[in-house]
Design goal:
90 residues, HU Protein, Chain A, single chain, 42% helix, two-stranded antiparallel sheet
Length: 90
């Protein structure tokens, strides 16, 4: 399912127009992005939790040349999703 299909499904289930459903979806996604940008987590009970994870600095290898030199991969923050209990059951 892509974003257009998701907007159509939201519009149908919530009794909204597709324009209103798109605005609602965009607003929800923007709110989640802003919370993650601040370092907060977003918990949707029954669905799951979005959070920011810290990835440590590490070394990797170029798959085209596995015997070549190791490459340093910098530390970074990454968005992470953990499914809730009801979603896991599905």
């Amino acid at each position: 399912m892509n974003k257009t299909e998701l907007v159509a499904a939201i519009a149908e289930k919530a009794g909204l127009t597709k324009v209103d459903a798109k605005k609602a979806l965009d607003g929800a996604l923007d709110a989640i992005k802003e919370a993650l940008k601040k370092g907060d987590s977003v918990a949707l009970i029954g669905f799951g939790t979005f959070a920011v994870a810290e990835r440590k600095e590490r070394f990797g290898v170029n798959p085209r040349d596995p015997k070549g030199p190791k490459v340093k991969i910098a530390a970074k923050k990454a968005a992470k999703f953990k499914a809730g209990a009801e979603l896991k059951e599905l």
